[in-house]
Request: fold
Amino acid sequence: MRKENRKTHTATGDVFRLTIGRLVVAEVVYTVVLLILYFGAYWVCSRVIVWQGNEWFYQLMTRVFNDPVFLFFIIWLIGAVVVVFIHVYRITRYFQDITSAVRTMIAEDDTLITLPTTLKQVELQMNQLKSESVRNFRAAKDAEQRKNDLIVYLAHDLKTPLTSVIGYLTLLRDEKEISLELQEKYSGIALNKALRLEELINEFFDITRFSLTHLTLEPETVNLTRMLEQITFEFNPTLAEKGLVWDLSLPQDMEIICDPDKLQRVFDNLIRNAVNYSYQNSTISVIVDYAEDVVILRFINSGRTIPAEKLNRLFEQFYRMDSSRASETGGAGLGLAIAKEIVTLHGGLIKAESADEKVVFSVLLPRDCKKNVRF
Reply:
């Protein structure tokens, strides 16, 4: 935005400098032409035409001949003032046009700015600034609305597992003759609901941290292979519940320099997303390729093809692929947004692709996040 502002200021300054330049040129041309006409007429009147002493024009020209320089100065001054007035009027109109354009630019609507042809470059840049400003304003407004909606949804959804926990624990307390089998069943349900309650509370903390803090990196040397093996191992119970299996293609003992805690969160979010949206009894693939300075990770799962309009918004704050609040997989929509920010801080790229009931998240990372590697 600051870069575009500088461009607009430069273009406006160029217009005014051009106007001042035209003023100077106009004054010079006016002076030269006036000199030619004035002294040409003076020569013709004094050398070519024979005047009679009683003619009124002869009386006038006599005064001109007596002091030609003074009269020329008077005529030149009148014309110069007119030329300056014309150009000052133009500059004043430019200021008025730009002031009006600024009011249009700060208006939160889609009205385009229209300026005179001389200010066409300024018009283009101001319209570009306005489009960017309106786009950013609407994106921020949408994100804030989604955030507020999700806080309301999460607050409402907290009641469901909490009510279940209280209900089943009350049954365990009040029912004296309850069988061991029912005790295990009720305590298992209460535990699952408590875990769900913990997830929702953690999402509240995520919203707060993401809104109020800026992420910073604490890089160190990490064995990426071991990190991925550990993360995928921890998901094995979850995979077993849905009949999912791993397909891991990892290099041996690859080391990279990164912030392990934050990068682990990226991988955790991507794997959790793959698990939540995979078909039953399918395969989740984690593939790592590498070059001298770059690591490419791909997380692939079989699931519903994500439409293009949703695919482009996956990394927005508080955006959820599954709009159903009743879904057990429904989160606050922060996981992928935070993952993108962490990858970007590492100097990397992240993107999502989906076709033929396959979803692929690709992460491109430098092997050393402290180096400025360009992709």
